[in-house]
Write a structure and sequence with these properties.
InterPro entries: Methyltransf_25 (IPR041698), SAM-dependent_MTases_sf (IPR029063)
Strand content: 25-35%
GO molecular function, one term: methyltransferase activity
Keywords: Methyltransferase, Transferase
Organism: Hymenobacter edaphi
Largest sheet: 7 strands, mixed
CATH architecture: 3-Layer(aba) Sandwich
CATH class: Alpha Beta
Oligomer: single chain
CATH topology: Rossmann fold
Pfam family, one: Methyltransf_25
Structural class: alpha/beta
Distance between the termini: 27 Å
Length: 245
């Protein structure tokens, strides 16, 4: 999970750095326009393979070739893949997260957002783009999803894949009878506004996209990908594979 950062306070990075320095109770507070404030323990970013949700373990098992881990956090997935012999580049927009990954032994780390990805002549393309922890959400908006899918296409080898998790949060808009109630004049219901705080400092506001399966399929097929829904859990979260033709 990664968050767009300005040159301002980096709550995730600060908490992760404190955690590796021994403050194991470090906890971020997540603010959103769809739910009450929620605690996010820094420890969650340091989970081992068997502490990961089943969707994430499945995604790791589906990785192949050269991997680009987007929104890599503290490097939990990148380190697991490295231990399996994969060549992995881990990217996060949080400077603190990038520093933590380097300290933990992630071999290739970059600090920028997903819209700054590019294919240089001296850099091989990737077989797998990995986006976990509701990772597709980093694109922020439906426009961002369209833009990202176009940017990702030349980063992948022919037949390369994007493995991403997302979630359908329509259940947040159910009334007492179970019917869905949406404001048709508002943005897509899966576009959520977030801010994060840590130790009484608050980071910048940002959008996060919870794209439902229909949205993912429509946008991905329009961008030239083959879509396969690999797995889902009881919380409306799902793992999707988008394969470049």
């Amino acid at each position: 999970m990664t968050t767009p950062m300005a040159s301002t306070f980096d709550p995730i990075g600060a908490a992760l750095l404190d955690y590796v320095a021994g403050q194991t109770a470090a906890t971020i507070t997540v603010h959103s326009n769809v739910a009450e404030d929620e605690p996010l323990p820094a420890k969650y970013f340091f989970r081992t393979l068997w502490e990961m949700p089943a969707l994430e373990r499945t995604a790791l098992d589906q990785c192949r070739g050269r991997v680009l881990d987007l929104g890599a956090g503290a490097g939990a997935h990148a380190l697991e893949l490295q231990s399996r012999g994969f060549q992995v580049k881990a990217v996060d927009v949080s400077p603190g997260a990038a520093q933590v990954m380097q300290q933990r032994g992630v071999q290739e780390v970059a600090c920028h957002d997903v819209f700054e990805l590019s294919t240089r002549h001296d850099e091989a393309r990737y077989d797998t783009l990995l986006m976990l922890m509701n990772g597709l959400g980093v694109v922020g908006t439906l426009e961002g999803l369209e833009r990202f899918l176009a940017l990702a296409h030349p980063l992948l080898v022919p037949g390369g894949q994007i493995l991403a998790t997302s979630a359908d949060i329509s259940y947040l808009y159910e009334d007492e009878d179970g019917a869905l109630v949406f404001d048709l004049n508002a943005p897509y219901y899966g576009q959520v506004d977030y801010q994060m705080s840590y130790q009484e400092q608050t980071g910048p506001a940002f959008h996060w996209l919870f794209a439902d399966p229909t949205i993912v399929q429509d946008y991905a097929e329009a961008a030239g990908y083959e879509v396969e829904f690999v797995d889902e859990d009881e919380n409306q979260q799902f793992l999707v594979r988008l394969t470049r033709h």
